[in-house]
Input
Amino acid sequence: MYKVLLCWRYLRTRYIALASIISVMLGVATMIVVNSVMAGFTTEMRNRLHGILSDVIVESRSLEGMRDAAWHMEQIDKAAGQWIEGMTATAAVPAMLSYQYGGQWITRQVQLVGIDERNYGNVSDCAKYLQHPANREQLSFELRQGGYDTHDHQAGPEAPPRRQMQKAGWEHRREVARIRAFEEQFSGRASADSAPPWAMQQADADAGTTDALDAPVDPFARHQKPERKFDASKQQHTGLVLGIALASFRTPEGEDRFLVMPGDDVKLTFPTAGTPPKAVSDNFTIVDLYESKMSEYDSSFVFVPIDKLQQLRGMIDPQSGTGMVNAIQIRLKPGVDDTMVRDRLRQAFTPELYAVQTWRDKQGPLLAAVQMETAILNVLLFLIIAVAGFGILAIFLMIVVEKTRDIGILKSLGASSRGVMGIFLVYGLSLGMVGSGVGMVLGLLFVRYINEIADLLGRLTGRPVFDPSIYYFYKIPTLVDPMTVGWIVVGAMGIAVMASVLPAMRAAMLHPVEALRYE
Amino acid sequence: MNKSHETIAAPITPHRRGEPHAHGRAPSDSGLQLDALGEADSGHITREPASSDASQAADDTSLAMVHLAAVGLKKSYRKGPVEVPVLRGLDLVVAQGEFLAVIGQSGSGKSTLLHLLGTLDGPDEGEIYFDQRRIDNLPSTQRDRLRNERFGMIFQFYHLLPELSTLENVLAPLMIGQSTWGFLKNRRKHVATATELLELVGLGHRLKHTPRELSGGEMQRAAIARALITRPALLLADEPTGNLDHATGLEIMKLLHSLNRQENLTIVMVTHDQALAEQADRVVRLADGRVEGQTAE
Output
């Protein structure tokens, strides 16, 4: 009883001790803020990473791909069918993307992914990052009339609007076609295709390969082509979904400027499946943009229908008519451990020919880096609290000296050494509790209002703390994990108690007579 | 002063401890007996040699009458490499209900004696008996208990806890002696007792004041109230008036006297003031680490 009473009185009268726990408080607050922001970033990133990648991917080690997708799917089903919700075959190949803007050709290196529009959406969350609401429901490679988002649907209202997107779709396509027709008329040039200088060579290459490759499809297709006049205002090429960063750039103010939009035509050039590979190219029409907010993906991925890609690359087996695929993407049932399925599939497929990976394995280095960063930050910040512990130790030793006579009095009144020790341990604990409690409240408040604080700091320093053009977020993502907060608070209290053990033992060992004599 | 004498007598007597029964004293007339004892002794305080006094006490009084006894106490302190002997084989016997004054020059070891008697410190050699039980070699938990329940101590510098109010200071021994739950359960009763005691010592209006706000005399009276809260059998007073002016000192002495008489409280008071000491039932003088007149072994 007297322990609690005395602790309470000491707490209320010794402000120097309260000063010592300010460092505990700040340490706890900082740890909570850092952990919440890191967890927010990690979660956001994981969601993004996982968004485009399916749970488990069986990949062929060769760009050529694997021959029979159906057979492979059967094998997968045999090995781990009970945990699998859906599968889809994809074909991937590095490619060059070219489009015209303001009379100039812009060429970008991309990762071309052939997907099955019917079921790719079931396997990965990629569809929900598209810009047209209907495409988010069910992806279609047909250009939509209009109705594309004019506002980033994943961001809050603070994101600047994308006014250019108002016209995206057929309206934009018709307008472009009209302008182009007018230009052609004006210049009097017959060729509608304003091909770049190298287009001639490419056309040669085209001619050289398509003979063999297009054969199973329709040997006369090529010869019929020139006869059918392509009307850009009414027709579209094969649809394609472009990563948003390939089509736009972000101004420092956070506004997105689009170079091309749904409705525009682009050219893709990629190697064929033969050995040695030869370049083949074709026109595509952008039907939607893809925005996962992972700049790595947004600036490299291009999705096209898999059958078109197989056909262009010559991946279709003339005998069986089945196309080759590069990978089979698997979505697992909710709650299934992906590493377990991965290990089962690894046993079923020869590792020399197939790489079986989870989405985590694919992004392993990135996730590991973030994890290590969090761990190191935690260690450093916990060291700060430990330093605060030494502050408590010093101040406690001082208080014990100051209270020497009181300790003598208590002992003369019959308090045991353990009781005296208890006073200081309880005191340390209550200081820790106050420090980490206030720190927790501060930290949580900081996390709650972190964007407002960042804005304020930005305004004060004249330099934005959080630049949305660097990060693909408009605001700082945070995630408060109650478990982490709990551990931080308990750890801080533990340090406070540990720091008070030595002074408490000193107090307990004071000789009552010496203590009473102390002036 | 007579007034306070009466106020003390009234409420405390009903709670009187049972010891006097054991020693064959009728509780009702114990005060009278004490008065008689005091009168008898007051005339010839130091006339008799202390040694004979001690042995006489041992001989005359039945063993049961001996409340506190020290036998051959030796204690020395170390000051650097030099060992300074303070007590050199001191013998002392205190009878039940006696008011004993120990006088001596500063450095004669009076405070050390009091600390040894109060089990705050252990003797190098010798034994201490309290109620026929050896107490100097008890384990620390039992000594803590003894200090808490059977002994009351008052000091020259009052030694109140500055963080606590007067009332809380008085309650402190009860808080120490009882578990939190046990204390809280009887809190109301304890507070009433403490208030009563503080009213007895004339501090009824100072319950919520901190020691800082009290005068020296008031602090000492609060300290006495604190010493009495557990109804101890023995009060050890270390220069209780040493820091007070003469008038206040006399008041404190009167308070101690009335406690001694009305409560049959055994008091051992240490002082260097001859005049104060003479108010006690019996006076022993310390010199050379022994009771004066005691023969060296």
Observations:
- The domain at 2-44+97-121+139-150+232-291 of chain B is CATH 3.40.50.300 (Rossmann fold).
- The CA atoms of residues 54 and 93 of chain B lie 6 Å apart.
- Chain B touches chain A at residues 112, 115, 118, 120-121, 140-141, 144-149, 153, 155, 159-164, 168, 172-173, 175-180, 183-184, 226 (CB under 8 Å).
- The radius of gyration of chain B is 19 Å.
